[in-house]
# Entry
Amino acid sequence: MQEFKSVPITSKILRSKAFMLIVLLVMLVIVFTLLAPLNDGQFFKATTLQRILSDIAIPACLTIGVGLLIVSGGIDLSAAKVGGLSAVVISVNIVNWGMPWWVGVLIALVISSVIGLINAVLVNELGFMPFIATMAMSTVADAILRLIATDSSGVVRAVINFKNDSIDAINKFTIFGLTWSVVLLLILFIVYGLLLSKSKFGRQMYFVGGNRLAARLAGINSKRVSYFLFINTSFLAGLGGFIYTTRVKNGGLTTLMNDQFTGMTAAILGGVSFGGGAGGLGGALVGLIVIRSFNQGMVIIGASPYLTSVLSGVLLLVALSLDYFSQRRQAKRVGA
# Structure
């Protein structure tokens, strides 16, 4: 009889993507700490950490939503545009519609959720590929955004600024010294992390992502899983748009535009397989911190924003390449 040897926990930790990302994060801190004084800046300090944590609250909403979808074998390319639409709806409500700010937030979240529902219908009922359906819905969301941002003279306003005392108070609200958005970020990662790793529904996500047909034969309602995740992704994107408006007091045509692939890159860097069926949110959080630490470090040392964008794109390609080779190794082990 063949004897199976258990893999030590320490070995599993050392080979995990989360550990590799933590090592990468430490290296980034060291490099930018050494380079920052050359540009009369500082990187290794408490305010930088607070800025990074505060900065990741918005893309974290996209990371969680899109990350769960990828685990289930789906994808959503409309999330960032839905978040931008949410920010514009809230801004226009305060500036033009004259309703209480919280009504605008509710309207924005409802619109966001409806877009997620439409994505789910396109994928599950009409047979669209998730990539095509959500890319098309991104275009639709952008058109709705521009329609709402058009003033009475027919001019599309690029940015809609507003003033609101209640939103100012929300932005300044802190819990144990942390801004409310950072606390919300931690709560979201804990809740959704437990949902994915400890619940029956989370196991169903993995089954559907690993093999949709086998999951259906096992009695799992893959459509129900898909509907929930698409709606959830758009809802979280709308929540990200709300967080954005509390920070900058506006919404515009380019709101959250650069965060779509940030969320996806963080999820894949953190171990979420682009092919579905594997990954978790703990690594995704570390991946997000790594990306934002890199961006913040580039700003502190005075690097060109175009160079930062190029290197961020390279990071996404590297993440996808590593995931591809990881899937190939996994397939070879299964075949063997």
Remarks:
- The first strand starts at residue 159 and ends at 161.
- Residues 305-335 form the longest helix (31 residues).
